[in-house]
Write a structure and sequence with these properties.
The chain is an alpha/beta fold. Helix content is 42%, strand content 16%. The two termini are 28 Å apart. The structure holds pyridoxal-5'-phosphate. Pyridoxal-5'-phosphate binds at residues 20, 78-80, 105, 107-108, 156, 160, 185, 187-188, 208.
């Protein structure tokens, strides 16, 4: 692991799990702590006035970064919060269906299943056959789950356990032709892939700022296009609801005020955007992607597994899922940490297991060597098999 950009993550370990939780560079974390100090030094004026002014500016800065109107985007703590807001409010009748995939994030499968059950609707997890081969095949596979009861689609732009980039632009376009509401889980997307919400034209989009944008934990956003804002209730009713001082956006009034909370992590987002600009982050990200492909190719040559997609930028960004067989994925993750000091998730999708690595600017070929050594050891001792 190298010292590039002064990330706070421990240097005596091999950290290959930026995808689950990012780590802040020191400069960003110091800015965050300064914001917390500012809050604590005059909590009343900060929470009621100055902080709100800064929050509105932070929202404008993020809206510009993801290219949408700043009245259509609101900070939330995490994508789960955003999707719970949507799934709870979405008007669904008995028999209606929400079309999704079998590659979605576990917490959000639970969210959709819960609210669909409650409303007598159906959450459909259409199977996307692996290995992926072409964009067209993925789009076709997805819409084979469509029928006249389908009202909305919910899909990840980058999947969690399988680390695949799904063709959401094509899928949203096709969904619109069929008159469907489009809801995209872009938790992994900001600062990982270029994100342009005006071009994507999804009705609803959530992204995490605390992953690849390197913001402190608890900073994410919910975007909703004007045509859908009307029916989205706040998950938490607070002073912004039926406010005596309405702003230009009812959506912002309803969703931005959420009781007393520390919103310093949100206020750090413009600093992260500036940090990325100053350090030419597009170039950094490009080089992380190249490294991901190089590692994946080398590992495939060494261990002869069947990759779940072509190893190129069609479906891959800065993460890669190595298909393995193991009897106990939890134990395997613990073992990788205890014996090798490698932080890496062992993910599960249906009955399949993967070891998923993520590449950030601090990763280097020493990390690769550590991972390869561990995989050789695990294979020799028959704890894992590649498949
Ligand atoms: C695809 C996907 N969606 C959503 C999330 C967000 O999870 P949370 O709301 O717990 O931050 C994650 C987290 O890793 C994810 O991988």
């Amino acid at each position: 692991m190298n010292e590039n950009f002064n990330f706070l993550v421990r240097k005596d370990i091999t950290f290959l799990n930026f995808g689950s939780f990012g780590s802040c560079p020191k400069e960003i974390f110091s800015f965050y702590q300064d914001k917390q100090l500012e809050l604590e030094s005059q909590p009343v004026s900060f929470i009621v006035e100055e902080g709100i002014h800064q929050l509105n500016n932070a929202r404008k800065s993020l809206a510009q970064y993801v290219n949408c109107h700043d009245d259509d985007l609101v900070f939330v703590t995490n994508p789960s919060y955003a999707i719970n807001t949507i799934a709870k409010s979405l008007p669904l009748n008995i028999g209606d269906e929400v079309l999704s995939t079998n590659l979605e994030y576990g917490a959000l499968i639970r969210t959709w299943s819960y609210y669909c059950d409650k409303k007598g609707a159906k959450f459909v997890q259409q199977s996307i056959p692996l290995p992926l081969s072409t964009v067209e095949e993925v789009v076709d596979a997805f819409f084979s789950g469509y029928n006249k009861n389908t009202k909305a689609i919910f899909i990840s732009q980058i999947t969690s356990s399988t680390a695949l980039i799904l063709p959401v632009a094509e899928i949203c376009r096709e969904a619109k032709k069929r008159g469907l509401l489009t809801i995209v889980d872009g938790a992994h997307v900001p600062a990982h892939l270029a994100l342009n919400l005006r071009e994507l034209k999804a009705d609803i989009y959530t992204g995490a700022c605390h992953k690849w944008m390197m913001a402190p934990k608890g900073s994410s956003f919910l975007f909703a296009s004007k045509n859908v804002q009307e029916w989205i209730d706040p998950l938490l009713i607070s002073w912004g609801f039926q406010t005596e001082n309405p702003s230009s956006s009812r959506f912002i009034d309803h969703h931005q005020t959420a009781g007393t909370r520390d919103f310093s992590a949100f206020l750090t987002v413009p600093f992260c955007i500036d940090f990325m600009k100053r350090h030419d982050w597009e170039k950094v990200s490009r080089s992380n992607k190249e490294m991901t492909i190089e590692w994946a190719n080398r590992l495939k040559d060494s261990f002869k597994f069947n990759s779940i997609s072509p190893i190129d930028d069609t479906f891959l960004g800065q993460m890669f899922a190595i298909p393995i067989q193991t009897t106990d994925s939890l134990k395997l993750k613990e073992f990788l940490w205890e014996k090798f000091k490698i932080e890496i998730p062992v993910t599960q999708m249906e009955n399949r297991n993967f070891i998923r690595f993520s590449i950030q600017a601090f990763n280097d070929w020493d990390d690769y060597a550590a991972l390869e050594t561990a995989l050789i050891d695990l294979q020799k001792s028959e704890i894992i098999k590649f498949c």
